[in-house]
Structures are given as structure tokens and as C-alpha cells.
Description:
The structure is a homodimer. In chain A, the strands form 3 sheets. An 8-stranded mixed sheet of chain A has the order 7-11-12-17-16-15-14-13, with helices on both faces. A 5-stranded mixed barrel of chain A has the order 2-3-4-6-5. By secondary structure, chain A is an alpha+beta fold. Chain A starts with a helix and ends in a 20-residue tail after the last helix. Chain A has helices at residues 3-12, 19-44, 131-139, 188-192, 210-215, 217-220, 224-246, 285-293, 334-354, 356-365, 382-391, 404-418, 469-478, 487-491, 507-515; strands at residues 60-62, 91-104, 107-114, 117-124, 145-154, 167-178, 250-251, 257-258, 270-273, 276-280, 298-306, 319-328, 378-381, 422-426, 449-454, 457-465, 500-506. The model of chain A is unreliable at 1-19 and 29-50 (pLDDT under 50). In chain A, helix 2 (19-44) crosses helix 3 (131-139), helix 7 (224-246) packs across helix 9 (334-354) and helix 7 runs antiparallel to helix 10. Chain A is elongated and about 95 Å long. In chain A, 32% of the residues lie in helices and 22% in strands. At the A-B interface, helix 6, helix 7, strand 7, strand 8 and strand 9 of A face helix 6, helix 7, strand 7, strand 8 and strand 9 of B.
Amino acid sequence: MALTEEKAVASEGDQVKSKKQLKKEEKQSAKAIKKDQLKASNSSNNKEQESSEDVSTGKYGVMAMIQSSENMSSRVFVNVKNLMTALADNSVWIRGRLHTSRAKGKQCFMVVRQQQWSVQVLAVVSETISKQFIKFCSNISKESIVDIKGNVTKTPTKIDSCSQQDVELHIEELWVVSQAANQLPLLIEDASRPIKLDDDQDGLNIKVNQDTRLDNRVIDLRTPANQAIFRLEAAVCKLFRDILTDNGFVEIHTPKLINAPSEGGANVFTVSYFKGSAYLAQSPQLYKQMAIAADFDRVFTVGAVFRAEDSNTHRHLTEFVGLDMEMAFKYHYHEVIDVIGSTFTQMFKGLRDNYKTEIQEVCQQYQVEPFKFLDPPLKLEFPTAINLLREAGVDVGYEDDLSTPNEKLLGRLIKAKYDTDFYILDKYPLVVRPFYTMPDPESKVASNSYDMFMRGEEILSGAQRIHDPNFLTERAKHHGVDVEKIAAYIDAFRYGCPPHAGGGIGLERVVMLYLGLDNIRKTSMFPRDPKRLTP
Amino acid sequence: MALTEEKAVASEGDQVKSKKQLKKEEKQSAKAIKKDQLKASNSSNNKEQESSEDVSTGKYGVMAMIQSSENMSSRVFVNVKNLMTALADNSVWIRGRLHTSRAKGKQCFMVVRQQQWSVQVLAVVSETISKQFIKFCSNISKESIVDIKGNVTKTPTKIDSCSQQDVELHIEELWVVSQAANQLPLLIEDASRPIKLDDDQDGLNIKVNQDTRLDNRVIDLRTPANQAIFRLEAAVCKLFRDILTDNGFVEIHTPKLINAPSEGGANVFTVSYFKGSAYLAQSPQLYKQMAIAADFDRVFTVGAVFRAEDSNTHRHLTEFVGLDMEMAFKYHYHEVIDVIGSTFTQMFKGLRDNYKTEIQEVCQQYQVEPFKFLDPPLKLEFPTAINLLREAGVDVGYEDDLSTPNEKLLGRLIKAKYDTDFYILDKYPLVVRPFYTMPDPESKVASNSYDMFMRGEEILSGAQRIHDPNFLTERAKHHGVDVEKIAAYIDAFRYGCPPHAGGGIGLERVVMLYLGLDNIRKTSMFPRDPKRLTP
């Protein structure tokens, strides 16, 4: 029995065989494959080891480690995603991973995967394809990287198990470029399996738990959904930057090492800095504001943000990617809200229109409702939101902050009433915002601040900041903030600063909520939380 | 004497007045301006305080702090850079900083600056402009932000001191939006002054030393050269990302908090991580390579990189922005060198063609030779470089690494011979590269590694990495690296990994060397070195 088949049993059949038994069989088959590979190598070296002559000699085997000793540029490679009927009857090279292989008598059916795309490769004993070649194919460990030369052939019926359903490759050559270990900690098939709501009732579907995935991220990231998620994440960054750049924003880079905690002493990581100490920035806010005071007018920055918060929830990370922006305005901070709101609208349109394939690939594994938004976005004032909650029977006051459950409920109420997954809440109560938030001069309780939400979860918090050093000092004292400790912050505004507002977005949250995923670790390539610093 | 004039004396004339004397005068004029502002405010409140009636009442004064209480959207603002003769005889609003003001009898000449652009504003006593208005104008502290309504007027002769040389504004209204402190730690005029080689012989030119600049970065960043430098830095990032994205690269984000030093224990910052410790990543290399092992094929990442190196040189920072990329290739790492080389060529073209103004603005302050490059870029093998140095009389061997002085000399030799400021050195000796570098199988001493240079300084280091876990283990042992400690790194390659190569670029170095600046602190907005953690 081929090793790849063994492996399938080992992973799918916990019910069937004992671990001990499986390990024993593993060992035996590991020995077998080594022996076979040796034979194959030898046969490809034109030696005859088998009883019959090998007609495929020189057409298969394990390649020497690629050290750039020769430039085989005559081999023209085709990407698997481009294997289509238009190429029928052509001989092409592909490089991909052996996703599965099943030998049946004189045949071997392989599926070769390249990123999200896959194609069936067929090897059948013939005048030019030897038994030994077939055996070699069936013994290659899953996830090994192979170079295959094959004839593109139309298939009579669609191949459901592959992304390329109308063609298959009839093998001519096969070379192993990089061998995977025989024992895989998780199988791509298992890690890619669609998550269904009634999954638990069907005991046959193996699930891969999150820690196994994250511990073996180099394998887990190969699933079509993960390939798509991180392409979408790159798209969100690109859209954010392109839209803002088109609107006159300048990208800046702000230091992560700072000499004092940016938002008070709580939740900050301390760094040994030569003979002293430094801290990791919890936000780039001071630096964005300094750039405004330094005449950059409109700035954004994309970078790591650190929070030493011991929260083990579905939406907290200790390190995440912040998409931050700050903008000077003439007379009213709504000039800024409008720019941010429109940035989101354009971003949602860009994702919807240009990344359909990626969104669909995620949907094939995770059951997701499409993301809905309005253009221009819905903007409600805080008291309106409180009224919605009170009408729904929630006991909440006009100066209370929104709890996480209330935010989620509000998300559902707004979705039901306005049919949008994105909205802006303006005019938060002053008491629930930091000291540097500009109070609303027309109101005793409100401030010029806002949060933005996706599917009922906050993804941006922002405000008009106080740009007057004297008023800033007054408000800091009112909040009991030690003015000495924030002297550098206040001093930044002493040499003239235009009124300005801005906000900070968590990248991983935006991607998670756009796709409707349930855990932020799914949208962080190498997530960091209080319990995880690896890989 | 008006305060702004006082200030000029205080900064430019250390030879003339004692500090004590200046401080005294400061105080007196500070009192004077307060009094004047009070009068102006009052007069704008329609009260008559002066002996004569104020015909400009309601046309000038200090605005109340902008709290977004009204949306004065009827005021249409024009950017200073767009003030041209086509707008002559129109009344427009501008918002900018008071750069200078000089009162002369019944006139006040002001220069108002907006980012890199400036315009002259003229106030003359007339039927509608009162003496009090003129006095108010002349008393506004430099760097204050003002809203000015004025009539665009063609000037008979060009105004050399402003970017807008063909028009000036004849004042109609002036409102102070944000007042700067009377005492400025540095003057934009001084900080913007062209650096000439024979500067020192001319004692009249005040220079602002680097620490003063960095200590007061919100003011220093307002100089035209600095406005241009950081726009160019944003351009380098944008070009890097756009060029790579067009070439099929995916942007990824790699963690800065890691559980073990990425390049051995030296030069790494330690972080307190809950009850344990973490380290700050010295490079994203392992994570880029994991992304390749995870089938992303071509990736790049832009982010903070940390080096706890106690180097106080012109080109070392403890935190900088890394532009990193990694790419799988088919058979030869030159596939990757070609992509990186072409990325640089396209970047240099993009800067040259689309950022002329910014480059020129830097050149107006710093004497810079234009950056020269070849297309395709010059690529030399390491021994060729050694020969060039030996021919120039340097005693250096074929397996020696290049010292910094030798790199610089080589840069000059290559510039003289090939007329290029950018070049690639391929095939570094294996002994001077890290254990994970792929040896050149054709040579006993060379490796598949390369550095890239701008004006004789290294800006990229890269190589084909070893993608085979067994060979990687062997090489690590050969280098005396504790294999246990890098187990996670080696394990990343156990499940199949294509051959790959890549490199890392320091953003600040690229900008510094492209512009020919002499210190990396000029191209880091808020630089970090062993002695500087603020602002």
C-alpha cells in the first residue's frame, strides 16, 4: 500500500486503527518509500535494477537539490490556473505540490496543486511509461513539490475534485524538486473542508483544531481559503493606501520604540533599551498628530501596533497591523468623517468588484453572508443608537459606553432597519473618551468623536483632537492625567497646529469582519496573543 | 518694534545682543502682543478702544478655537501652490503659516507658507484697512496659522523670496486660527538655508544643528526640503509595492514580537512579555521564507525592523523600515536577482520622472549630484570587484568581506568606469555569509548571494536560501550554530519548499543615498538611535 494512502487512513480513521498500529505501518511504509526512491533514482541513472527493463529511464526521479547550477530556461512552465482546453494536445511543464495520488493497478491518478488551483495528472503504463514510473509516482509523499511534463488532454466529464475541471495532464516526465516529510501534522484536505453548521452530527469529517493549524502554519496557509484570505488582506492594505494617496494623503512611518507609554502605563510592553528602558507604541497617534503639526496636512501609516492586554478573546491580538490616518480640516471634523467614510465605501467596492474569486474561495470553506454597505455610508448620532437599543428593551443610558454585547445587538438592529453591515456612530459622550478628544461646544455631554462598525464590531475609533495646548492641558488635568508626563505631547501643539481629526483601524479585524469569520487568528498570518509567540 | 522682527534678531544675531537683553525684550514684546491681540479682539467685537474709529472692525482678529461648531463651507479655500496669474483680481481664502512679517510705516509685508509653497501678502492702510489691522498683522507670532482673504494681484517684478513669484495677495481679512508661541526653538529660515561648501567662511549664516532639529521635529519638518524628503520616502514605498504587486507579489505582515532572536543572540532587544520574555525581530526573513514554504510564491513586506546595535554612525538606526521581498524560482536564483534589479531600475525611473519637484526642493538646500543608473543595472561578480580594488592598490583578498571604506572606494571606481550609482555584486564568498546561504556548487569559495549598492553603500543584502532541511542542518552545524535553537526555522522546510531567494532593503538608506544626503537621521521622520528615543 502506498504511503500517501496510508496517510489518509492515519488522519481520517482514528476510529479504525490504533495509534500504535498506525505508527508501525508508517515505519514500514517509510522504509518502503526509501527503498523505492532509491530504485527510482538508480533507474533514472540508467541502471537496471528491476527484472524488466525500465522504458521510462531518465523521465522521472528525485532531482538533485536545486543550487542554481544550471538555468533550464528551455522548460517553459505553465501556471496550473492557466491549464485550459485551449492548450489541449500541447506538452507543458508545471511545478506544484502533490496534493493526492492514488495508484490502481497500472494507473496512478494524481492531483497537483499550485496555490488555489489544482489539476489531475494521469499516469498509465504504456510503451513509454513503465511500471516502475507508476510505482514511483504512487510513493511520493503528499505536499512534495514536483515538476511534471504532461500532455494537456480534454476530459470527457468534468473533474469535480480539481479547480481545472475540463483538462488533465497525461504524464511524460516527473521530477521531485522538494520532498515533504512522510508524516504530515495536518492534511490540506482536512484543513480545507467546508465548515457546515451540522458538522458535528457527521462524525466522518475530520476537523483540524486551531492550535494545530497555527502550530503548523506553513502547511495550514496552503489551503485555498487561507491563500485567498491573505490576498484579500493585501488588497485591503492596497486599497486603503491607494484611496488615501489619491486624496492627497502622505504615507509616514512612526517609531514603535518610544520613551513613554503612549496611552498611559497600562497595557504597554517594556523593552530593555541599552542601559535604560523603552516601550512599544500602543498607537501611532502622537506621531500622526505631530506630522499634522509639521504641515503634512493629511497622513496615513500602516504598521505594527502593540497591546500588552491579557485578553484571550476571538478579537484581541497583542500585536496587530494598524491602518491609521490623520487629517487637518478647515472648520468642521465632519470633513474628516466624510473622507474616512468614503474611504471605506471605496474599499468595499474595490473588494467586491476586483476580488470576487478570493471572496468565493473563502466562502467555499466558511459559510459567509455577503457584506452589505450603503453609499454614502449610514451615519447615526450616538443618542439615536441608544434609542434603538432602548426600544429593543436594553437598559442603557445616553452617557454610557456601548458594551460588546450591546454593540453586537445594535449591529443586528441596524442591519434589520437599514440593511447595512457598515455604519458610523458620531457624537460619543465626552465622559467615555480620552482627554485629548474635542468636546462638542453645542452640547453638555457630547464630543466630536466617532466609532465605525462592521457587522456590529468596532473597527475604527476616532475624533477631533484638541489642537490648542492650553485647552489640552486643562482637559488632561480634568481627567487626572499627570501633565508633566505628557509634556512632549502638549508641546507638539505650541508652535501652531491646524484643527485635525483622524482614526485608527485594525487590519485583521476589518478582514475578519468583512468575510464574517469568527476569529481574528484566521486573518493574522502569524498571530500573537498572550499565549502564542510562535511560530 | 514688532515681535516677529525681534525674533529675527534673537535668532540671527547672537553676535549682536546678549541673551539676557534678548530675554528682556522678548518679555516686553510678549506683553505688547497680548495687549494688541486683546485690542484686536475687542475691536473685532465692534468696540472702539483706539482713538480713531477702526474701519477694519470684524475683518481681523484671533478666532475662537475651532471646535466644529459651524461649517463655514461658503469660504472657498485655494491652495497656495495654485495661486497664479490666472486667478488675478479674484478674492480668495488661503490657510497657511505666517512665515515672516515686516511692518514699514503704513504697510505690512507678510509671507504666508503652506507646505513647500509661499506667497506674499500685502496690507496697506487704506479706506478699508485700518492702522490697527496693520499693527495686528505685524504682531502675529511667526509660524501661527492664519486664514487670509485677499485679492490676487499680479506683481510688476518677480518675488524672489516666495514660491509664487508672479502674484501677491492684497489683504481683505485675516484671522489667527492657531497661535504659535512667541519664542521658537528654531526658525524655518535658518533650518531651510542652503548648505554650501564654503558655508563656514561666511559667519552670517546661522545653521541649526541636528539635535536641535530633531528635538523640535514638528518645526524642523516644515522646511521645504523636509516636506520633499518625506514625500519622496512615501514615493519609494509606493513604487516598491506597486512594482512588486504588478509582478505577482503578495504583501504580507510579519510579527515583530518573536520568541527567539532571529539572527542569533547579539543585537536583539528583549521585551517583557507577560510572565516571560520576547524579542524584537531583527528581520522578517524567517517569516518571508515561511510564506514561500506556504505557497505564496512571491511576497513582500514593509515594516519596522529592530537592531540593538550600539552604533552611533551616519547610517545606523536602532529602528528602521525594512522593505523585504522573497521569491520562489524555478532553477536559478538569477531569476530573482533580475526581478530585484528591475524593481530598482523602475523605482529610479519613477522617482526621476514623477517626483522632479520634490528632488529639486531637496537640491535647493543640499548640494546633490543627480542619481545615475543603468538599465538593465550593472551586475559584477565579487572577484571582479576585488580586482578593481587591487588595481587601485588596495590589499584585499578574494575571500575577504568588503570593509565600509573599501565599499565606498569601490563605489567611486565603478562610478568612474561605468557611470552608475547603482550596481549589483553577485557571488559573495561563502565564508562571509550566514549559514542559510546556498553555496555555489560550481565553486569552492563562492555562494549564491549578492549585495546591491547605491553611491558605494550597501542597501540590500540577499541570497538564495537553503531550502533543504538536511543540508540546512549540515550547514548550521558547520557554522557552529546550535541546531536545537533553530529547530523551528529548519522545520519550516520539512513539508516541501521550492527553491527561493530574496533580500532586504533599508528604506531610510535608499532615500538618503538616492538624494546623496549625509545622515540617515535626515530620512527618518522620528529617528531612533542608541542615544535618541524622543520625540
